Amino acid sequence: MNRLFLCYLLIFSVVGFVACSDENGAAPVSGESSAVDESSSSAGVLPSSSSWIAANSSSSSSEVSSSSENGDSGSGAGMTSSSNADTSTAVKADTTKITYALKPFDGPLSNPHKGFTVPTEGLWTFVPEFEYGPYGSLNNKAWDLISYGSGYQKWNKLNPAKGVYDWTELEKLLNDLAKHNMGYALRVLPYSPSFVRGNDTPEEEYDWTPSFVYEMGAKRVTATLQWNGYRAAVPVWDDPVYLQAAKEFAKALAEKYDGDPRIEYIDIRTFGEWGEWHASHLDGSEMPSDSIEMDMLDYYASVFKKTQLVLPSSGMGEVYTHALSLGITKRDDGFIGIPGRPDSLVRAYEANLPTIAENIAGYKTMLEYTDVIPGGYLKWTPQRWVDAITTAHLTYYVLDQDSDCGYNFYKDYKALADSMTKVIGYNFTVTQAELTTIVDTKGSMSTLNITVKNTGVAPCFFDVYLVAELVDSLGTVLAQIGETVRIPKGTFKDASSQKFSFTYKATAGETSIAKLPGVTVALSLYESEGNFKNGKNPTVRFDNDGILENKKLMLKR
């Protein structure tokens, strides 16, 4: 009797153990389903890239177990079931990883809001008759490096009478430059001693302060030019009537052009010879006090809210410090010829502002300098040119101010000049790019991870928008990968790298575009998200091989 009872008890224990084992085997199925549901929408969106890759990419393919409610395999293909045992099947998740080959762009690389300029003061620059122009008979390839135009306008031409402003000629120039994908660095000058050719030179030829300013009572003095002894009339720079007229013009200029995308930056040229805030060649003319100069900076900063303002070369000391506090950057026009001038711009760079420079003279003139200091100037050499750009962390530089628009300079130093287009300002280089695509029964997900380095000597001083797309072999867009990424101005520092990740998902039954033959990735940089959404081409190019005609970068395996 006891033996029979023990046998029944043993049989009951074994059956009970099998039943418990079957119940415990069903729990993970329920857990996997809830986990997928938890991270999926009703439209079947797959889990986030980080969780998905972590769960599925420990090897080139991973296994996912599934079971039906009655213990049958989820697929039901060639599997058997038992009432006493759990069964499962392994479903492969196909993982493909592509690492793209990356090479530098071959040749000069001109990009917006940085780089080199040459004098472009009139529409005549672009006519075929001008032999040094981009369409001239000399086929001047220095224009391949030019990213923006620069020049001066006369105050009395833009402001011929009190409250009257004539922007006609300036508008024509800005529109012509825009047709050539160039902005304009604007300087409005009140005075230029370069046009004093004798004691009897008509005042309006060199004094470009509007005549109505003097008619309202502003005073002038007579000064002597040091280089030729000629005598000339000069505005009294701190005269209250003059100062008020200058502010009224600044207000009108801001109302017309603040935030205009055709304007690269505006110099505040209110005082001195060529508006450079000095009167060093005019005996008898004196600059205003620091407090008056800083007051003028305050006023310009109050009316210009968007366009970058620039303090001219001779704004120094407390005036320079005050300008930086207002977000007004600094330029210097004594580069190479005068020792230490590039160092003077480091303060502006450290204030996270773009630095701007011009050499002390034209290239051909500087080749004749004697290197005698003091009493002379340093001559132009390739090493001094490179050092000037890198020391000052330049964003903008006049390639050459001679009337030949850089023709002779570029002919002599083409390879060096080409290479420095990738040094001056920002320069974005993709240093790593990898696309991982995982496909399983739930759908597919492609994750693009890239690293971009700013290999230039300065930050990027405008918002830039990074877009990643799947394209066919011809560059036709098939789908955007993830969202557009905004990189705020001034945040992508020189010599720094940033990593970006983009994800494209497709549900079960949808084509995995990334897996189609011939499909690759294109990267683009836009100056506004609106340009991308409106179907315009990008304007900023990467320093990588594979740039398409529309300025997108097509990645290659």
Description:
- The chain has 557 residues and is an alpha/beta fold.
- 26% of the residues lie in helices and 24% in strands.
- It is built from 14 helices and 21 strands.
- It has helices at 2-38, 49-56, 155-158, 168-179, 211-215, 240-257, 290-303, 317-325, 346-350, 363-366, 382-391, 407-412, 414-420, 529-533, and strands at residues 61-66, 89-99, 115-117, 148-154, 183-189, 220-225, 231-235, 263-267, 282-283, 309-311, 329-335, 355-359, 394-398, 428-440, 443-454, 464-471, 477-480, 485-487, 497-507, 520-526, 553-554.
- An 8-stranded parallel sheet has the order 3-13-12-11-10-8-5-4.
- Helix 9 (346-350) links the parallel strand 11 and strand 12.
- Helix 6 (240-257) runs parallel beside helix 7 (290-303).
- The longest helix is centred in the N-terminal third of the chain and has 37 residues, at 2-38.
- The radius of gyration is 34 Å and the shape is elongated.
- The model is unreliable at 1-89 (pLDDT under 50).
Major beta sheet summary: 8 strands, parallel
Residue stretches low in confidence (pLDDT < 50, at least 5 long) are 1-89
Described by the principal axes of the CA atoms, the overall outline is elongated
Q: How many strand units?
A: 21
Strand content: 15-25%
Number of helices: 14
Rg over alpha carbons: 34 Å
The whole-number mean of residue pLDDT values reads 86
Q: Structural class of the secondary structure composition? A: alpha/beta
